[in-house]
Design goal:
heterodimer, A: about 120 residues, mainly beta, 7-stranded mixed beta sheet, 4-stranded antiparallel beta sheet, 11 strands, B: about 110 residues, 5-stranded antiparallel beta sheet, globular
């Protein structure tokens, strides 16, 4: 169990550019979640996958955001035409339906700064 | 819509004190409640998870209670240490088709000074 990993850890981009983040969950976990956290706030839910199926998307996830989880393994979160308001920490978490069902394990996050 | 509130927003205590962090939620139809710790600029570490059918969970110096009917949870930290300084987040998990989706409070920033 190597934990949840995210790449990159930091990303600085100019407004209008596209960015893509990657999340590798704990290997046996079938559920994967994306959250966004701005300074001084708790994380906010964006979307989640059960295996490769995207089951729910928050209304926070505008048309510029897209997430995938091909083959139910790693996931990517892409933001197109970034805006300064997209600056935040993007957190990924995974969980399993077995054992401690519902306990979510978080990665270190990707901090996005849009200039 | 589920809303989670944490009180106090910030807390500063001397080393060795026992302390209580509070969390309240508006919709009692939860699957579980988790307490997390977050160090500055880092991800979240799960501290305790309480299933909706449980009343409390303990881990070391930490004890979390859940009163689902009143929509409240407390995190009790015994004999606080400077290493406990962090932001503590409470999150409730929805059930049904939104299973696993966490709704977080804004957190309590804890500072334990020597």
């Amino acid at each position: 169990d190597t934990g949840v990993s995210q790449d990159p850890r930091h990303k600085i981009t100019k407004r209008g550019q596209n960015v893509t983040f990657r999340c590798d969950p704990i290997s046996e976990h079938n559920r994967l979640y994306w959250y966004r956290q701005t300074l001084g706030q708790g994380p906010e839910f964006l979307t989640y996958f059960q295996n490769e199926a995207q089951l729910e998307k928050s209304r926070l996830l505008s048309d510029r955001f897209s997430a995938e989880r091909p083959k139910g393994s790693f996931s990517t979160l892409e933001i197109q035409r970034t805006e300064q308001g997209d600056s935040a920490m993007y957190l990924c978490a995974s969980s399993s339906d077995r054992g401690l069902a519902g306990r979510q394990y978080f990665g270190p996050g990707t901090r996005l700064t849009v200039t | 819509k589920q809303e989670v509130t944490q009180i106090p927003a910030a807390l500063s205590v001397p080393e060795g004190e026992n302390l209580v962090l509070n969390c309240s939620f508006t919709d009692s139809a939860i699957y579980n409640l988790q307490w997390f710790r977050q160090d500055p600029g880092k991800g979240l570490t799960s501290l305790l998870l309480i299933q909706s059918s449980q009343r409390e969970q303990t881990s070391g110096r930490l004890n979390a209670s859940l009163d689902k009917s009143s929509g409240r949870s407390t995190l009790y930290i015994a004999a606080s240490q400077p290493g406990d300084s962090a932001t503590y987040l409470c999150a409730v998990s929805a059930g049904g088709t939104s299973y696993g989706k966490l709704t977080f409070g804004q957190g309590t920033i804890l500072t334990v000074h020597p």
